[in-house]
Structure formats: C-alpha cells, structure tokens
C-alpha cells in the first residue's frame, strides 16, 4: 500500500522539479524581454502566451496532441531523435505542465521587472555595466519578491496539473500517473482510502507553498 501511494507521488515530484525549472527560467526571461521592449504585435504575442491560463485543460491537451503527435512534423522529428514518440511519456507530462504554468510565472516576472526603477538600471549602464550585469545584479534582486512568488505559484500549478496531462501523457501507472490522475482513478475504482491519502498530501504541499507566497508578500 505504501509503495502504491509513493509511486505517483515520486512521478509528480519528478515532473514538478523538471517542469518547474523550465517554467521559472523561460517565464523570467520572457517577462524581462517583454517588460522592456515595445514592438508591433506585442499585445498579440502576450495574449498568446497568456492563453493557456484561460483555455480549458482539455483544449490544451488536444492542441499538444496535434502539435506533438506522431503525425505532426514536430512529433516525427522528436521520434526520430529519441527513437520513440513523446506522447504518453513522463516528458509529455512535463511539456503539458510547462504550458499551463508558464503564464503565472511570466506575468509575475513581468510585473516584478516593470516595478524596477529604470533610472537605477540606466545609472548602472552609464557606469559601464553590461546588460547581463544589469540583469543579474540589479533587475533580478529588485524584482526578487515577484519572481519568488511567481515561481512558487507556477510550481504549485505544475503539481496540480490534471486535464492537459491526462490527455497528452495519459494515466499509465508507474510511468505517467501523477497524483492528480491517481486520485481520479482511485475515486473511480472506489478506493477512497488511497484517494484521501493523496488528497491530503496534495493539500499539505499546496498549503505550504501558498503560505510561503503569503509570507514573502509581507
């Protein structure tokens, strides 16, 4: 029973760590670039980036199946490179989680960077600091609170991802079955004891993450 409880938890944590890493990096970079630059089509681009936040998870999952499926160009390229299709693997769960959690990280990072006083950054450039130095030594530290909050919220979103993951990665025990999909299967099978254990573990982890966000905002 303990092993049955532990396996989906391990898969969820593995997916959360990998997807969370990519979400934080990509969201921070996108937030920085789009907080600085104005260009034609920026509003359209930002709308596309934020779209997964409002789309039904099943729609996101369907689009991922179309884009990365075995009949698509991208899907065929991936299968040629890694010798297997990406659909119904734990990497599919990672991709689905990145897509749905990215808007949270992006919006938080962008808000944080927009709150940085431009004059401070300009003063650093006048003193000879490179763009990388300005970014890492001034912009990041001054927007750190927003970045940390966005990181925790996006990681929590990854941990709780269900719909898109179920469609794109499936619900394969020991392979792609995360805690949210395991809860669904346990309830469907009438295994309420196991469902409760997974539910309580998710509530505890999510509560701790949100508590950290609240404390960081004080």
UniProtKB/TrEMBL annotation:
The chain crosses the membrane at residues 15-35, 47-68, 88-106, 134-159, 195-213. InterPro entries: MetI-like (IPR000515), MetI-like_sf (IPR035906), ModB_ABC (IPR011867). It holds the Pfam family BPD_transp_1. CDD domains: TM_PBP2. Residues 9-217 form the ABC transmembrane type-1 domain. It is found in: Cell membrane. Keywords: Cell membrane, Membrane, Molybdenum, Transmembrane, Transmembrane helix, Transport. Its main location: membrane. It is a multi-pass membrane protein. Signal peptide: none annotated. The keyword Cytoplasm does not apply. The keyword Transit peptide does not apply. Belongs to the binding-protein-dependent transport system permease family. CysTW subfamily. Part of the binding-protein-dependent transport system for molybdenum; probably responsible for the translocation of the substrate across the membrane. This is Molybdenum transport system permease.
